[in-house]
Each structure stands twice: as C-alpha cells, then as structure tokens.
Input
Amino acid sequence: MKKYLPVITILALIKLSIHLIGNRNYGFHRDELLHLSVSEHLDWGYFEFPPFIAFVGKIAHFMFGYSLSGVRVFSTLAGVGILIICCLIAKELGGKIKAILLAGVSVLAFVPFYRNHMLFQPVAFDQLFWTLGFYFLVKYFNTGNVKFLLFLGVSSGFGLMNKYTVFVWGLGVVAGLLFYKKGKIFKNKWFYFSGLVTFLMFLPNLIWQLNHHFPVVLHLQKLKESQLDENGPFDFAIEQLKHPFSLMISLIGLFAYFFDKDLKKYKTFGIAALVIFCSMWITQSKAYYFFAIYPILFAAGAVKIEKLLKKKPKWNYAVASVLFLPIIPFLPQAIAILPIETYVNYSDLELQKNGRIKLTDDYADMFGWEEQVKLVDSVYQSLPEKENCVIWAKNYGEAGAIEILGKKYSLPNPICSNGSFWLWGTGTTSGQVCISIGNEKEVVERVFKDCKLLKIIKHKYAIEEENNIPVYLCRNPKINIQQKWKSLEKRVFD
Output
C-alpha cells in the first residue's frame, strides 16, 4: 500500500487545492444558508432532509464561525474522501499503480463533483456514504471478515441520516447481493446485524417523521410538482451524456463487472448500478442523484483499462490526460475559482438592458444576501420599538440570510413559513411592528393595517427570484400571527 500513497496523496492535494481557491469566492448559496440555519435548531429531523447536515453545520460553526471557506471545507473533505476511497476500491479490485492513478483522475475529471463538493449541502456526504458503503462491501468480498458488514451498517446509517436517497442505494445493493455467490450473504446473521445497526441509527429520524406526520412525503410531492414533472422522459439519461470521457470510463467499468474474467465476481456492483439507474429514471429523479454511483464504476473502469494497456503501460498517462485536460476550461463554470468580474469576462457575459448580468442559477444564488441583511439591519436599528419587532421573510433563502448573516448585526431570528423555518414558530416578540422582506404588497396588507414600502432591492448578479424584492415596514397586525401559524403547516412548500 505504501507505494501507492504518493499517487493518492498528490491527487487528493490537487483536488483540495482547487477547492481551497474556489470555496472562498462569492457568497453563501441559499441552500447553504438553510443548512446552517437548521444547525441553529438541532433536532432529529427537518422538513427537507434528515439531521446529519445540521450536526456538521454545528461543528463547522464551532470551528470556523460562519466563515465561507471554513464551512465549505467539510463538503470538500467529503469530496477528497471520495477520491481516496475510489483509489482504494481500484486497489481492492486488483488494480496496480496505473489503475489507482486513473481512478483518482476520473474523480478529478468529473466536472459536477466540483460544484457538489464546494457547496455545504447533503449531496457531498451522500456521495461519500455511497462510495464508502461500496468500499466496505468489496472489502468483505475480498476478506470474508464480518466486521466490514458492520462497518457497512454504520455507513448506511449515517447515509440515511444525511439523505433519503440511500434507500435507493440500498435497493440496488440488495438486488446485486442476490447474485453474489447465489445470495449466500442472506444466510449470514451478520448481514442482518448490519441492517439492525442501520435501522437503529435511523430510528430517531423515523420517530421524528412519525411525530410530524411524515413531512418528507409532502416535500417529495411538492418537489415532483414543481421540478420533476417538468423533466422530459429522457432528461435523466441525457444528463449523464454531458460528460463523455467520464461516462466512457464508467461504461467500461460497468462492462467489466459483467464480462471481465477477474472483475465479474464483483457483478453485484454492476447490478446495483443498473437497478439504481432504472429506479431513478423511472421516478424522474434529479440527474445529480445518480452521480454518487460513478466512483464505483470509475474504479472498475480504471482497473480494466490498466489491464488492456498492460503491454503499453505509458498509454495510461495518455488516458489520464484525455480525461483531465479537456475539463480545465470548464472549471470556472463548475467551481468559483475566478473573482466574479474575471468570471464574467471569461464567460463573455453581457450586461443586459436592465443593468443585470445573468449568471448560472448556482452562482446567482450566491449574491444579494449580504445587501438584503444590511438593509434590514438599517431599518431595524432605526426603530424605537425594537422589542416588539419581527422580521418576516418570504422564503428560506431570505430567512437563512437573516438567521446566519444577521448574527454579526445582532438581528433577531426571522419568522418564515417556508420549509423548516415554520418549525421554529413566530418568535418571542409581540409582532406589533414588522420588517417584511420578499413578501408582496397584497400579502403584507392581508396581515397588517399599515404597510410602508421602504425599498425595492435590486442586484446586478442575484438570481431573478431575489431581484426587485420589496422591503416593507408594517404596523398594527390585523390577525394574531401566533394563532394563525399552525394552519400554515400544509403550505410550507408553496
């Protein structure tokens, strides 16, 4: 193993270095603000996701405060872990130094991973736990040591406490294990102990879901209506074709699991990949959910290519170059390695007639939050009756900005009926005075008698949803917000 460490270390440092440059730029994404907000309200579950991200957020805050690069380093470390584990899987599959190199480069060359491993989201950890689970399985196949089944149970438990897509991963793995030594593993009591460990780790979230009437069902329903139903029947599959060189490595790996004389004993992984792909395609899942499967395919593809080039080993370096070099021009679009003005010029983006520059949604969602919070703070500080004031945000992005970025201004936590923010209620103030951000005129006038428009917030780079948003100062509520709050539960995802 020692002879492989320099290669793995160099590849890991390359990925880490790229992220250390990119992670510090622009600002928090709206989803990051939500994930940090839930860390301020630790619980065993939330409306949008299980609690793992909240606990990581709490650790991040303890170590770095709400530093952009400090918070994001956790997702990056998950990404570096994926690269390292992919290399280790290649070794377990029988690969030598060239296969380990190709496996690591395959991870480096997969463009979506840069976005996934920059933002503080459950996605990076989801991919990590999928890859880790496969690693423990291949270790069990190679050694027969049941401790790896228990490790599999622990990693699956953490995975479920991070993102529910692990259920689909589990479906694929169980289907694949039916073909491993004719399903012999299902006669092993330690396999069921492993499942019990996973269940016990997941149980607190299951109880939380039960006590809150399974909001995950409502969330999935609204997600389907608002996003997934818009997908065409082939969009999921077409999205996988956008990265041809990485796709080629993965298809070679998939082929090897079924037809290579040395690798077909691991066909469990090939079957799992096919079952997961079909399940996600049928259910119109988001394409990036499937990206978590690629490391196990990259590893097998790297091993197969090393075997094919056994007589011409130097050609492995050519393959590695063909994988990585073409993606370099696309890195600024995948991770924020360029300052925004440089990125605008690099991407040849033009100033529109309305004075705005249209960025990709992910980048656009990192702008405007600081300006919103500064404006709200200026209004809040001017109020003589601060003790009676609530800050009412329309959506979780605006609420997250007030909750997290507002800490340095000592702003009170916002109230918001969008997503998990509904769980935290209407605060402790009377609400006789309200600063509303994002809510339209007809909405605030249904709740308050006196509503004064203070400003329409515009931002050159912000996403359209956060441009031209109104800020109102409202007084004299028409309704009792505390009494009304309970009835808003079924509309948290509207």
Notes: The chain has a mean pLDDT of 94. The first helix runs from residue 5 to 22. DSSP finds 23 helices and four strands in the chain. The beta strands are 389-393, 433-437, 448-457, 469-477.
